[in-house]
Structures are given as C-alpha cells and as structure tokens.
Amino acid sequence: MKKFMDKDFLLTTDTAKNLYHTYAAPTVIPVLDYHCHINPQEIYEDRKFENITQVWLGADHYKWRQMRSNGVEERYITGDATDREKFQKWAETLEMAIGNPLYHWSHLELQRYFGYEGHLCGETAEEVWNLCNAKLQQPEFSARGLIKQSNVTLVCTTDDPVDTLEWHKKIKADDSFDVQVVPAWRPEKAMGINKPGFVDYCAKLSEVSGVKVNSFASLIEALRVRLDYFNENGCTISDHSLDYVMYEPATAEEVEAIVAKRLAGELVSKVEVKKFETAFMVELGKEYHKKNWVMQLHYGVKRDNNQSIFRKLGPDAGIDCISNYTPSSEMADFLNALAVTEQLPKTILYSLNPIDNAAIGTILGCFQDSSTVGKIQQGSAWWFNDNKQGMIDQMVSLANLGLLGNFIGMLTDSRSFLSYTRHEYFRRIACELIGGWVENGEYPADEKALAKIIKGISYNNAVRYFGFDLETK
To answer: Which of 7, 188, 375, 391 is least surrounded by Cβ atoms within 10 Å, i.e. has the fewest?
Structure first.
C-alpha cells in the first residue's frame, strides 16, 4: 500500500515519475495562472490572513456545497459562526469527501504551504488550526508571499469594462513585486440585456467611456473605448460567461430596436436576447481579433438554482449546476461568422458539460490556421470537471481529436491564494496519463520529445499562446 499522498502521489510508472519530477513539478517549471478571480487590491495591499478559515472558506463555493451536503447548518458556512467553528465543520466534512478533488486539493495545500503531512478530519482540526494560524502570521504567508512561494510568474484577474484598473496600475508601478498581474476583460454586465441592472450599467459605461450609450452602436463604441483602455494597461484576454455559445443572426435594425426597447425600460423576449447576444459577441470578437487578444468562452452552466440561498447570498454561492443545452451547431456557426470575414480571434472553449468534449474536439479542427499554433483551444477541464477523471477525460478526448502537445494547460479559476496547488494536481495527472502511454508502447520513450510536450502543457504553450512577456523554460 502506498503512503498517503507521498512524493509520487498519482504517479504509478517510472516514466510518469521521471516526467513529473524532472519537467513538470512547480519547483522545476513555474506556474502561469491565466484565469482566476483573485482581487488585485488584495495583491497590492499584500493582504494578511488572520486564520485558515479566511483563506479557505471565505469565498469558496466548492467547499460550501460540500458542507451543505454534509448537513451543516448555513451559519457554519456563510453565517455568523466563529471562524474556528466553521473550520471544524469543514474538517468534519472533508473526512467524508473520499474521491472528491477537494480532499486532494486541501491536503496538497496543507503539505506545500504548511508542512502538514497528516490528514485533516474532525479529530485533527485543532492541531491543523493551530499549525496553519501560526504559519499565517509569518511574512511569507501574505497574499504576495503565497504567490511567490508558489513560483507563479503571472496572474490574470477578471475585470469589468468599467473598472478603473487602479490596483493593476499600482502593482505594475511597485518594483518590489516582480510577478506580473494583468487584467482580463469580462463584459458580462454589458451583455446582460435582460438583467435588472442593465440600464444602470449602460449609464455607468457612458460615464467612464465618454460615449452616451443610447443604442447598440453606441454600446459597442463605448466598449471599444474601454477595450483600448484595457489594452493600454496590459490586457490581452477576454472572458465570457455564457449559458451556451449562441448564434441567431439579425439585421442591424432588429438589434437596434431590441436595445431601444430595453433602454426604454421594457424586458425583451428570449429570441430577442439571443439576437442581441449574437450581435454583441460577433462585434466584440472582431475587436479581439484586431487587438490579437484571446477570447475565452465559458459555457454550459445553469446558475443560481436555489432561490432561497440566492436571495440571501447572491451569485457564486455554490448553487450552480451543469446545463445540458449546449448546441455545438450554434457554436460552430458563431465561430464561422467570424472566420468567414477572417476576424476569428484566438479562442478557448470551455464547456461545463463533459459530454461536450468530443464536440469541442471536432469543432477545433474546423477553424485552426497558420496564424497561431493551436489557435482554437479546448480549455482545461473546468469547475465540476477539474477532478482526476474529468481531467483525464478532457485530455484523452483532446489527444484523440486534436493535438494534446499544443494544449495550454491548467488555470486555477479560483478566489484563493492557496489554489496554485491545482496546477501540481493537474501536472501529476498529465504525467501519469502520458507516462502510461509511453510505458504501454503507444509513444516512444523519446526524452527530448516528451520533455517538450510536458513543459509545453505545464507552462510554455501558455506563454507562447497568450504572448506574455515571459521566458519559456
């Protein structure tokens, strides 16, 4: 029996062990986190954490879901219980999470950052609480310290078009911190035409852009102004959260009438929403191509399902699920609408529904070209899929239908400064998968070729693909 999560955790063959320890370990090759939800203000201010609950449970809806599944009262999850009480309830939940990636992530974090080699459960909670809290008082456990400990070279946050990017500017001007922190453009509110705050948001966008938003054309023009501003401040990536990648073309007159109707205070129909969103995405896609930005499309989620919890806590409360309405035909039509005019940007496709792996794999091949190696990417297994089996399934499908060697690898998609161990988790799984193929005679034991593939998937492909000012390794 293997020791619990030892140095060869998830690695069973000699080839896998060699690939990971020689080429993929975060101590060997850095971490590039090209998509996360960390607050840049906390990085600039170098936030200090009073206790492990603040780091682990403060905004982690992954953990909140599992605590609810363990019958924990909400006051111990998001309510007024003490941090020590909340940590106890999480420890008691974790011991039941056999087979859940949270079990591995949590213990990787305890090992790598806090040096704890045991296992967290209700009985060990006090020991772990005291150990972690003592460590968190040390200078190297601040927000910046944790990033540096993790060997991170670049962090890409998620930012609204009306954001001033004040904290990004301050971080860039601070010579004492050499990790790049760049914004990513997330125009979700500008696209949410039927959301309650849309009209107010358009007024705010008007104010910051200097363009009066009173039509679809002026909405796009205001966004162009802000795109230029983001571009000047180092942004090269957009991110869109979609129900699905839609395509319902309409005339310019139709789209203008839809926007006029909404700005007048009326709600629009589902078909009208779809026409507006299609026009919105096509116009922004053209802008991304012009600026050589990357367009990320996250889709296949049904959000905010439990309205009782949503009314109390708002979005990102652990009440989202997979949607099985993700028509690949419409996604192909959308990409084609940009490709036919030679304005399709570099694009990453992430579906929350694992059934979509093969569909994405076949769509990729329809739109690749010589402008960029792996121009259209299948994103890493996302959210409910970033577990061992989900990552294996995503990579096997990509290998079968595309070129796994050009894959841009892992991201945290997290709000936590401890989540960089997810990159280690992913790299171990990738090395085990690829090492297994070598051991089985399905790929030659060519060390040079394997090193290129592993280092590429771990780090180098993302550096090249996004065009970041970083050296490949």
So the answer is: 7
Say how far residue 406 (Cα) sits from the centre of its chain: 19
| Dihedral pair phi/psi, residue 322, rounded to 5° | -75, 135
Q: Is 358 exposed, middle or buried (0-12, 13-18, 19+ CB in 10 A)?
A: middle
Token pair 């709600």 is found at 267
Separation between Cα atoms, residue 37 and residue 33, nearest integer Å: 10
Burial-class residue 61 by CB neighbours within 10 Å (0-12, 13-18, 19+): middle
Q: With helix as H, strand as E and coil as C, how does 336-377 read? A: HHHHCCCCCCEEEEEECCHHHHHHHHHHHHHHCCCCCCCCEE
Q: How far is 279 from 334, CA to CA, in rounded Å?
A: 10
The strand pairing partners of 298, in sequence order, are 241, 350
10 Å Cβ neighbour count for 72? 19
How far CA 86 is from CA of 77, 125, 264, in Å, comes to 6, 11, 46
Half-sphere exposure of 42 (CA within 13 A, CB side): 19
Q: 129 near 84, Cβ under 8 Å?
A: yes
For residues 230 and 340, give the distance between their C-alpha atoms in angstroms, rounded to a whole number: 27
DSSP assignment of 116-154: --S--STTTHHHHHHHHHHHHTSGGGSHHHHHHHTTEEE
Lookup: tokens for 277 = 């969103």
| Residue type for position 274 | K
C-alpha 22/C-alpha 44 separation (Å) is 34
Tokens 């986190």 sit at which residue?
33
pLDDT in tens, the chain (473 residues): 999 999 999 999 999 999 999 999 999 999 999 999 999 999 999 999 999 999 999 889 999 999 999 999 999 999 999 999 999 999 999 999 999 999 999 999 999 999 999 999 999 999 999 999 999 999 999 999 999 999 999 999 999 999 999 999 999 999 999 999 999 999 999 999 999 999 999 999 999 999 999 999 999 999 999 999 999 999 999 999 999 999 999 999 999 999 999 999 999 999 999 999 999 999 999 999 999 999 999 999 999 999 999 999 999 999 999 999 999 999 999 999 999 999 999 999 999 999 999 999 999 999 999 999 999 999 999 999 999 999 999 999 999 999 999 999 999 999 999 999 999 999 999 999 999 999 999 999 999 999 999 999 999 999 999 999 999 99
- What single DSSP character describes residue 185? B
Cβ atoms within 10 Å of 279's Cβ, excluding its own: 22
